[in-house]
Model the fold of this input.
Amino acid sequence: MTKIYFDHNGTTAIRPEVISEVSARMAEVGNASSTHGFGREARRHVEMARRKIATLLDVDPQQVLFNSGATEGNNTVLRGFEGQTILASAIEHPSVLESGVDIIPIPVTRDGVVDLDKFSVLLDQHSPALVSVMYVNNETGVIQPVTEIARLAKAAGAKVHCDAVQAFGRIKFTRASLGVDFLTLSAHKIGGPQGVGALVFAPGIHPHRLLQGGGQERRQRAGTENVAGIAGFGIAAELAIAGIPQFEKLSLLRDKIETHVTASSPRVHIHGQSTSRVANTTMLTIDKVAVDTMMMAFDLEGVAVSAGSACSSGSTRLSYVLCAMGVFPPDLNVAPVRLSLGHSTTEKEVEDFLIVWDKLRDRIFKD
Ligand code: PLP
Done:
């Protein structure tokens, strides 16, 4: 059976150089907090990775805090503002929207971009302590005007957090170019291992201590460092940033898919297509098809795609991001399908996908 992996926004293939690095570090013993030689060697690898990430984002290494990934990074930032007024876009990842603090949602346009006019009104009405807006949405690939959002938020006296998970290694930026106070990153979206990430923060910021009971990470995050994972993250970050020109070329394959699927049926619609998106992501819907039918059909054909995260309010499994964009009411019979390509995607994979697509179209949604 054909195996096609088009879920790179979910997690992407680990790069071979990262596997070598992680394996080498795992073969060594040593806790990075220990003062003996083994510990110091482990520490050296952690600090090397920290310098790599810091250089790529043009920050001081002390402004990089390693953690277990972006869920922890987002929780750390949001929980640090518990009890204060927080504005976050309605299309943030659940690790922001459901981090356990009250959030005032910032609406997005039909294209899935934060509505700057409505945002300005909310800033005036609420004078928030924190504004949290992602750089690239994981479901649509739509790029958010983070620099402008940060400028407006700062002028209103707020701190700014940006979940940059889906932007890192895809768009060139630094912390300062965005003008944000907090950035969250995750290694497994860029060819690194799962379960490791970083919170990057501005000078003078003291991140909330989410995990207590240990002096690691300059007393900012308790828990033994994942030395092998962190070392792999450092390598993956360098490779991903160097690979941005290559990543951008994925838009040729993405456009080929979009042209084909829209021509294949009037029931297919692409979302966010008329605004800026990263090169690898297509979010489409198919009218009058149940989402589960579509997901199961792809799976049986050996194709890995995603339907997006469900609307928490709706009884059906429809993407809450598309709900926020006003694409459909939560009870509509529409199948959302997210296709996300990655560094390991080949032209052959795309051609095979289009053959599967036509087969499913003939079987499931041919009018
Ligand atoms: N934020 C965004 C935009 C994501 O896409 C993801 C992963 O799906 C996360 C946060 C959570 O990242 P992690 O898997 O590192 O916890």
